[in-house]
Amino acid sequence: MPSTRRGAHRARTIAAHQLRCWRLPYDSAAHIVAELAANAALHGRVPGRDFRLTLRVNRTSSVLRIEVTDARPERLPEAPAQGDGAAECGRGLLLVTALADRWGVTAGPVPCKTVWAELDLPG
């Protein structure tokens, strides 16, 4: 996806459509995609480089994994402390923390990083 606000919006739209096609709940996942994609477009942007959105469903463990890969491995996301309404950035990660069952960052492939979030799926 292009590392722009329009690309981040497109990522959310595509993810919601794909999850509906898979007949999976998509509201929380779409919010997470929107936040991670917006972060990739804003903080992970390198001119001429796009970001990648990956959605994976592990039916065995009933987990949806959302991954957003960008080209700025040195810019790691940090969620602000709970209740830090004065923080100018990172508030979207509070939403990710609240909606996801797990999230984190994985280095690579060089020169990239991947921010991921997992949602446990019902039954």
TrEMBL record:
Name of the protein this chain belongs to: ATP-binding protein
Domain Histidine kinase/HSP90-like ATPase residues, every copy: 4-109
Gene3D superfamilies from the UniProt entry: Histidine kinase-like ATPase, C-terminal domain (3.30.565.10)
InterPro entries given in the database record: Anti-sigma-factor_SerPK, HATPase_C_sf, HATPase_dom
Superkingdom of this protein's organism: Bacteria
UniProt keywords, alphabetically: ATP-binding, Kinase, Nucleotide-binding, Serine/threonine-protein kinase, Transferase
SUPFAM superfamilies: ATPase domain of HSP90 chaperone/DNA topoisomerase II/histidine kinase
Molecular function GO labels: ATP binding
